[in-house]
Design brief:
mainly alpha; about 100 residues; 4 helices; about 60% helix
């Protein structure tokens, strides 16, 4: 495989990854919406990143790293994708 072909394959893989991640986000939104319908998830009880950082004395960069390493589940909401955490998830991950 020459460099041009490798570049094409790499671009196709990246495109597939982007498509997969978008579908995953759509499924997450659908799942959370379904849970809200049954009263399982209450937006008012979710914590913002700022609240988690203040409560546990960690900085936002650390929270970013935890998300990147998939050590703590989170949800993005709204057009700007504000990040929220379920208190139970934060407590479970607090021993990180």
């Amino acid at each position: 495989m020459n460099a041009y072909e490798l570049k094409q394959v790499s671009a196709m893989i990246k495109s597939l990854e982007n498509t997969f991640m978008e579908r995953l986000r759509q499924m997450e939104r659908s799942y959370l919406d379904a849970l809200k319908g049954f009263g399982i998830i209450d937006d008012e009880k979710m914590w913002t990143e700022k609240q988690v950082c203040e409560k546990y004395g960690i900085d936002r960069k650390t929270m970013y790293n935890y998300r990147k390493m998939e050590l703590i589940p989170f949800t993005r909401k709204g057009e700007r994708g504000k990040i929220y955490y379920l208190p139970a998830d934060v407590r479970a991950a607090s021993n990180i």
